[in-house]
Amino acid sequence: MLAKRKIEKILLIFPPSTEVSGGLRMCIPPLGIAYLGAVLRKDYQVRLLDTTAEGYDNVEELGTGLVKYGLSYQKIKEKISDYSPDLVGITCLYSTQFPFVSKICHLIKEINSDMITAIGGYHPTFLAKECLEKEKSIDFIVLGEGEHTFHDLLKQIEHGTDLTHLEGIAFRREDKLQINPKTNYIENLDELPFPARDLLPMEKYFSINIPMSITSKHKRCTSIATSRGCTARCVFCPSPNFWGHRYRARSADNVLKELELLIKDYQIKEIQFQDDNLILDKKRAVEIFKGIIDRKLKLQWNTPNGIALWKLDEQLLKLMSASGCYELTLAIESGDQEVLSKIIKKPLNLKRVEELTKIIKNLGIETNSFFIVGFPGETKEQIRRTFGFAKKLNLDCSYFFIANPNPGSKLYEICKEKGYLKEDFDFETIDYFKSNYDTPEFTSQDLEKLRNREHVKFNLGLIYRNPIIFLKRHFNIIITNPRGLYRSLIHRWLPFILNQS
Fold this sequence. Notes:
Blueprint: E1 9-14, E2 17-20, H1 31-40, E3 45-50, H2 51-54, E4 59-61, E5 66-69, H3 73-83, E6 87-91, H4 98-111, E7 116-120, H5 122-126, H6 128-134, E8 140-142, H7 147-159, E9 169-173, E10 176-180, H8 202-208, E11 221-224, E12 227-228, H9 239-242, E13 248-249, H10 252-266, E14 270-273, H11 282-294, E15 300-303, H12 314-322, E16 325-333, H13 337-344, H14 350-362, E17 366-373, H15 380-393, E18 397-402, H16 410-418, H17 444-460, H18 462-465, H19 467-480, H20 482-498
Parallel strand pairs: 1-3, 1-6, 6-7, 7-8, 11-14, 14-15, 15-16, 16-17, 17-18
Antiparallel strand pairs: 2-5, 4-5, 8-9, 9-10, 12-13
C-alpha cells in the first residue's frame, strides 16, 4: 500500500531535444503533454513546460555528432522550484532525450525529495526496467498511451491504493521492479479534450517556424493528430507496439471542430498532420477533406510523417488537392520490392507507387519521401536500387536514412539475435545518418559513405530538376533561420560533398 499523498499541482515537461550537428532544429507543439494536460486540468492545477521551445537558441554540442537544444538545466530547475508542483511528468519521445530526462528527474529530487516523478514515451515504454535501474530518481513510468493511465495513477496515489494491479505502469515495490503491461487503450478518441495548446508558447512556434516538415507555407502553422496506431508491421517501427497493434481514429466532425478552433483561436493557416495513417479509413478521410472544403476553412496542409500509399487513388488525391494539400511525404522505404515485402514487411507495391507519384505530380502536389537503407539481409545492389528508384520517380526531395534498431522494433530483436550490434551500441546516441551494425552484406562505414554520397547527389540535384521548387523550399529557411542554414551547409552538406569520392 502507498502512503496517501495530496496532489494539487502538476508540471508536465517536454525535455530538450537533439539534432545532428549542423541540422535544422525542429520545434513543434508537443501534443503528448498537451493532451495529457487537457485531461488532467479537470481535476488538478496543470502547467506545461516545453523546454525545447523556451530555450530554442541554447545549443550545446554533445560530442556524438548530435547537439542538444533547449533550456539549460539551471533554468529548468528554477522553473520547477518557482512552481513547486506535487508531481512532475516528463515525456521521453526519443531515446536521445533520455539522458536529459534522467538529469531533470535528478534535479527534481534535489529540489524536494518528496516531489513525485513520472515519465512516459517510446523509450521508457520499451525499456522500463533499464530506465528504472539506471535512474533512481524516477518514481513511475507510464507505458504507452498515457491519458487514462496517468489519471488513474494520480488518483491511486492520492488514495494510497495498492498499485499492483494498475495496468500500464512500472515502478519500484519493496526494492523490486514491477512492470504492469499495457492492456487497455482508449476506444473512443473523440472523448479526449483537444490538446491544451493554451498552456504552450504558441507564438514561439510561429516565430521559430521550423515545423516537422522543416519548411512551411505559412508562419501560422501547427500540427494535429487525428488517429493513433498503424496496421502495418514495418520491421523498423515501434509505433504499432506503442499504440497496441490497433488503428483508432477520431471522427471527421471532431477533427473539423478542432481545425475550426485552431483558426479561431490562433489564426492558423497551415496544418501538418502527424498521423501515421491519415487516410487508412478512406471514408473518414473523404469526410475530413470534404469538410474542409464545405466549411471554407481555407487551410493548406501536408503530411510530414508520411502517408499510407497503399490507400491512395486518383479520386482521393484530387479531393486532397482541392482541400488544400500542397505536399505529401511518401514513406516508400525501399526501391527494391523484395526488400520491401520480405525484409521490411511493408504492404506496398512499387509499381503502384510509380503510378501514384505521376498523379501526385500532375496535381501540382510537391513530394517529399522517406527511404531507409541498410537492413540485415539487404545487399549493396538492393540498396543501389533504392537510390535509382528515387531518381526514377523524379521526387522533389528524398530523405535517405540508415536503418537503426529502435527500442520496441522487430529490427532491434533481429540485430540482437544475430549479434550484429556494435559493442558500444547505445540507444541514447542513435543518429539516423549513421549505422550501428555490420552485416555479412556490408560494413557500417561502406553503408554510411554510400548513403551520404547519394543523399547529396539527389537533393542538390533539385537545383537542376526543378530550381523553382528548390528556391521555394529553402526561401523559408533562409528568411527564418539563416544561422541554421549556414551551419547545415558547413557541417553537413560540405563534408558529404568532400567525402563522396
